[in-house]
Amino acid sequence: YSQAMKQDDRNSFIKAMEKEIEDHEKRNHWKLVHRSTIPTGTKRIKAIWSFKRKRYPDGSLNKHKARICCHGGQQEYGVNYWETYSPVVNALTVKLLLVIANLHGLSSKSIDFVLAFPQAEVDAEIYMDLPIGFEPEFGKPSDYSLLLLRNLYGLKQGSHNWYQKLKGGLTA
């Protein structure tokens, strides 16, 4: 299902997949539901794995990263998404602010949000098929779907929801 799974380091990607699922499950980002409970006519979207070998600046391997994403291309406007706009800062603006901070002797700091997008709640009822490698404790994977409770990467409204969450935190 991916070139990464055909490589010699596939076991490292499998461990990264397990970690990704565990991280989402312990934070209650979704709810496992039997497909018979999904309202009739509701379209499910596919889950997609994204794999990356993260590297240090010198090029040496840092870690293997696996991220579960939604296939946003299967979403329908007005059904399971509406607003998608989120502003993006221009790199020139960031550089200018860093120069100004330096000229005035101010300190600066960068931060990284772990699982940033899923910190925001999803704003629609979205069901996603189980990702490859996801096995429920009972029954067949084809009998179940995930009801998304949090904003996952790949959703059309993902960056909008995250921006709204971040803006709310910064302006509170």
Care to describe what's here?
There is one protein chain. With 172 residues, the protein is of the alpha+beta class. Helix content is 26%, strand content 20%. It has three helices and six strands. The protein has helices spanning 10-26, 91-103, 158-171; strands at residues 30-34, 44-45, 47-55, 61-70, 127-129, 144-148. The strands form two sheets. A four-stranded mixed sheet has the order 1-6-5-2, with no helix packed on it. A two-stranded antiparallel sheet has the order 3-4. Strand 3 and strand 4 (61-70) form a beta hairpin. The radius of gyration is 19 Å and the shape is globular. It starts with 9 loop residues before the first helix and ends with a helix. The relative contact order is 0.21.
Distance between the termini: 44 Å
**Rg measurement, Å:** 19 Å
Instruction: Count all strands and give the number.
Output: 6
Give the proportion of residues in helices: 25-40%
Overall form = globular
Low-confidence stretches: none
Major beta sheet summary = 4 strands, mixed
Percent in strands: 15-25%
The helix/strand series, from N terminus to C terminus, equals HEEEEHEEH
Question: Notable features of this structure?
Answer:
alpha+beta, four-stranded mixed β-sheet, two-stranded antiparallel sheet, 3 helices
Q: Any chance you could write out the topology, listing elements then pairs?
A:
Elements: H1 10-26, E1 30-34, E2 44-45, E3 47-55, E4 61-70, H2 91-103, E5 127-129, E6 144-148, H3 158-171
Parallel strand pairs: 2-5
Antiparallel strand pairs: 1-6, 3-4, 5-6
